């Protein structure tokens, strides 16, 4: 036959267009788009379905040990399976450095763990918590050239945070070797100062997590990070934005033409700080950083998805169970300072944004594809192989039934967090088929592939101008032109 697979009769949507076409798949790639494509080993009838590029989740913590030595509840198998059921066919978890570790070792460990387990394609961001001269001068440049072209740094968490000088160092390496820096922007001293005052007065309940992480801690750090990136003319993506003032700072920077990008996540559209005030320790389920804000804040984040403040919509999946292995490591009397930060969201990311965004007229279908697949693929060096429906691209498809309505229960999900923050929500629009490189991964609400059948995605650094690789030879170029 002409193809391995034909997806027939669906409505295709990319980041820019919506059109009717059949897709012919050969050797895992999209080989033809059109009608009357011919014969295939298998034909999937996509009548009534949207055929979307598979989702790209560019921010998730999977099989990762936190700075306080708690492992995420998901490993690369359960995490990737959960992603696949939600329509995501590419994910980018973190290879996280603890201080004192070599980045090389961290990457090797992540690769060895993920290879035998992942059922979808993957690449890794690094987390850099210890930018020594050796790391900045040798390991990191070499790793970027090997394809580890994105890394996250933290302005908060005592075991992870780097200071402004170190941020400048990392930004310069990213700029000179063609990588992208991601930043967790919250002011550590503000958080620490408020936390101490709360705990001194006996305010330790989960809801005080939100009190101790005020919007100003986020917006101050966001503005500072933007200025640091501006100083050295380096690209910077602010992850998991929740505060309206932080969103405003990002939009203002973008309007100035700076290479600043923004990411937000489901928890900032669908949860509020009031969720942290549920009975007993229930609020711990919703403790993440930055925390969910209020209804007006949610509206600001929706606006940011529409007005290009945010290019990327990721899950920031950080699954910790409500027991001694996770959120309640320090028992039921733990203070908000001792509760592992993070919420699960890999599986529901697309369905939540589709249902409440596209379904309720807040976003177009094309904006949805841009935010959840095309833009993250572009920003992280995976486009057009991922996030598009072009001939030659990987045949990664989510065949989306826009009318399928289900009420969320944890039991229908495939992660190992033990709960979902979105329990009880009614969502309209779910994937019927999920296809990764031409393989049907999910069909009939069942997994169809083996452990370890996903592939590592080799990336390339962005091309940087000649002469920028030895910045110390030309100090003036180290500081954005016109800023001295
Ligand atoms: O609370 C969160 N988001 N935990 C995950 C780690 C991070 O900072 O993204
Ligand atoms: Zn470790
Ligand atoms: Zn973070
Ligand atoms: Zn995160």
UniProtKB/TrEMBL annotation:
Entry PTM: Carbamylation allows a single lysine to coordinate two divalent metal cations.
A family per Pfam: Amidohydro_1
Residues annotated as domain Amidohydrolase-related: 50-441
CDD domains the UniProt entry points to: D-HYD (cd01314)
Keywords from the named record: Hydrolase, Metal-binding
Top-rank lineage group of the source organism: Bacteria
Gene Ontology molecular-function annotations: dihydropyrimidinase activity; metal ion binding
Cofactor requirement: Zn(2+)
Top class in the EC scheme: hydrolase
EC number, as in UniProt: 3.5.2.2
InterPro entries assigned to the protein according to its UniProt record, in alphabetical order: Amidohydro-rel, Hydantoinase/dihydroPyrase, Metal-dep_hydrolase_composite, Metal_Hydrolase, Metallo-dep_Hydrolases_sf
N6-carboxylysine: residues bearing it: 152
GO CC annotation: cytosol
NCBIfam families: D-hydantoinase (TIGR02033), PRK13404.1 (NF009941)
Similarity comment text for this entry: Belongs to the metallo-dependent hydrolases superfamily. Hydantoinase/dihydropyrimidinase family.
The protein's name in its UniProt record: Dihydropyrimidinase
Organism the protein comes from: Pelagibius litoralis
Gene for this chain: hydA
């Amino acid at each position: 036959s002409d193809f391995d697979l034909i997806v027939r009769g669906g409505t295709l949507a990319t980041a820019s267009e919506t059109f009717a076409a059949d897709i012919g798949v050969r050797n895992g790639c999209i080989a033809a788009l059109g009608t009357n494509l011919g014969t295939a080993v298998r034909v999937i009838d996509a009548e009534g379905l949207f055929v979307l590029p598979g989702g790209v989740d560019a921010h998730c913590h999977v099989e990762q040990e936190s700075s306080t030595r708690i492992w995420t509840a998901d490993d690369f198998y359960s995490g990737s399976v959960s992603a696949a059921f939600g329509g995501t066919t590419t994910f980018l978890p973190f290879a996280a450095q603890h201080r004192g570790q070599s980045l090389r070792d961290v990457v090797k460990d992540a690769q060895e763990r993920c290879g035998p387990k992942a059922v979808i394609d993957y690449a890794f961001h690094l987390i850099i918590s210890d930018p020594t001269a050796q790391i900045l001068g040798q390991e990191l440049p070499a790793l970027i050239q090997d394809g580890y072209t994105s890394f996250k740094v933290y302005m908060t968490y005592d075991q992870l945070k780097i200071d402004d000088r170190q941020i400048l160092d990392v930004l310069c390496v990213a700029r000179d070797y063609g990588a992208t820096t991601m930043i967790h922007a919250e002011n550590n001293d503000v958080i620490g100062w408020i936390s101490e005052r709360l705990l001194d007065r006996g305010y330790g309940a989960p809801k005080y997590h939100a009190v101790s992480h005020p919007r100003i801690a986020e917006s101050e750090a966001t503005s500072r990070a933007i200025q640091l990136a501006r100083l050295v003319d380096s690209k910077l993506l602010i992850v998991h934005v929740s505060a309206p003032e932080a969103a405003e700072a990002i939009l203002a920077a973008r309007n100035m033409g700076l290479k600043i990008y923004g990411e937000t996540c489901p928890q900032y559209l669908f949860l509020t700080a009031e969720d942290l005030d549920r009975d007993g320790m229930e609020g711990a389920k919703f403790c993440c950083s930055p925390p969910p804000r209020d209804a007006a804040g949610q509206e600001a984040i929706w606006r940011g998805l529409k007005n290009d403040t945010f290019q990327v919509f990721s899950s920031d999946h950080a699954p910790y169970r409500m027991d001694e292995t996770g959120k309640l490591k320090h028992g039921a009397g733990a203070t908000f300072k001792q509760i592992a930060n993070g919420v699960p969201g890999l599986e529901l990311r697309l369905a939540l944004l589709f249902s409440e965004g596209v379904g309720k007229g807040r976003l177009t279908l094309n904006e949805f594809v841009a935010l959840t697949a095309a833009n993250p693929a572009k920003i992280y060096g995976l486009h057009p192989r991922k996030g598009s429906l072009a001939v030659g691209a990987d045949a990664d498809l989510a065949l989306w039934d826009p009318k399928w309505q289900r009420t969320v229960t944890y039991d229908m999900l495939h992660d190992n967090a033990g709960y979902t923050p979105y329990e009880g929500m009614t969502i309209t629009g779910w994937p019927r088929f999920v296809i990764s490189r031409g393989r049907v991964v999910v069909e009939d609400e069942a997994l169809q592939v083996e452990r370890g059948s996903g592939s590592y995605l080799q990336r390339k650094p962005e091309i940087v101008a000649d002469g920028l690789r030895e910045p110390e030879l030309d100090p003036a170029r180290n500081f954005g032109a016109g800023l001295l």
